[in-house]
Amino acid sequence: MEINKSVCVVGLGYIGLPTAALLANRGFKVHGVDVDKHAVNTINEGKIHIVEPELDTFVNSAVNSGMLTANLEPTAADIFLVAVPTPFHHDQLNQVTNSPVPNLDYVISATRAIAPHIKPGNLVLLESTSPVGTTQMMADELEKAGVDLSSIHVAHSPERVLPGHIMRELIENDRVVGGINESSTLAAAEFYRSFVQGEVLETNAKTAEMAKLTENAFRDVNIAFANELSMLSDEMEIDVYELIKLANHHPRVNILQPGCGVGGHCISVDPWFIVNSGNGKAKMVEQARRTNDYKSDWVIEKVKNAALQFENKQGRPPKVACMGLAFKPDIDDLRESPALRITTALNKILDVVAVEPNVEKVNGLKLVDEDTAKTADILVYLVAHKQFKTHVAHDLTIDFAGLFK
Ligand code: SAJ
What we know:
41% of the residues lie in helices and 15% in strands. It is built from 13 helices and 14 strands. The strands form three sheets. An eight-stranded mixed β-sheet has the order 3-2-1-4-7-8-9-10, with helices on both faces. Strands 12-11-13-14 form a four-stranded parallel β-sheet. A two-stranded antiparallel sheet has the order 5-6. Strand 11, helix 12 and strand 12 form a beta-alpha-beta unit. Ligand SAJ binds next to helix 8. The site of ligand SAJ has 20 residues, from helix 8.
């Protein structure tokens, strides 16, 4: 079905590429843009540069039908959809809240790149998870570049899809849309209703931005509670998995699972956006972030202690295998990964090899296959990848991934 509308998707990563491929399969003519030449070439061959179930089929059919092309530069279109990273500045702290400062450089450069192509009647969408006020900042940036804001629509619709389930969730999830004014909200809602099966909920840009940050902060707080319980249970010699399972039998209790920390570009980053603009009021959100980060330090200490005990007993330092480096099971994404941080830290002080079935190489680490890893003295399970589910724990297995619960 040809919809006769064109979309320029800026950023062909974990959100932009699935969205571009989905839109192309739904009849939109899609001009994808990325600064990464390798990504552009791979997509134009009908292939993908990231791991995500079903994405290859969508991209392949979109490229073969001619409805999706990948490019290095934007072009004129009816709709512009920006899905670029919004990380934080690793080297800057907010003076008031002592929290990381969001880095909006990619949003600004994407906005500047599309500005010359914008025409009256266009709809500009920001999908990147962003601090409150970013959509308005984007509109201001367009105005500075000479775009007449009264002739276009600008709105935020945060992506909410879960890596590993992106293609299904892009269609099925409810969507929040918020414009910089009423007509922008309506134009954005109409666009999303054309391909989303879930409900499309209308609000303003600031509330839409905060809604997304709130969802991820909620999950971070809940996981921090689980991680705190895991450290308390260790003190009390209680099995935390049994504890949570029992507590979750209560009809109004739903505690998430402890792990080796919280990673990924979303949950481990977005709550800081709230802290950064919260003027000291986001105390619980901040503590959750710190607790989840601390859990990784605690894991490092546990492994160091186990290694010390081994050395005291055996008279030689142990060989340690870290199992899993991705930020969560069955993906290849290493962004803000606690498992990678833990393994890198341990690698500096111990004899470490690592297993990551979804990645071919990681600078500075010795990657080995599962069988080689199993010959190590201490096995540290950090991520519950499906490949590890048949493994058997031995005396010197330390499981932070809940595989052997
Ligand atoms: N984790 C735990 N225990 C749990 C669940 C997760 O330790 O019980 C850890 C994971 O191992 C991982 C981190 O939390 O390190 C985040 O994983 P996740 O699966 O909770 O979430 P993400 O980051 O993959 O995706 C989240 C989702 N947000 C919510 O569930 C509220 C997704 O819907 C968002 O679209 C995505 O962030 C995003 O892009 O913001």
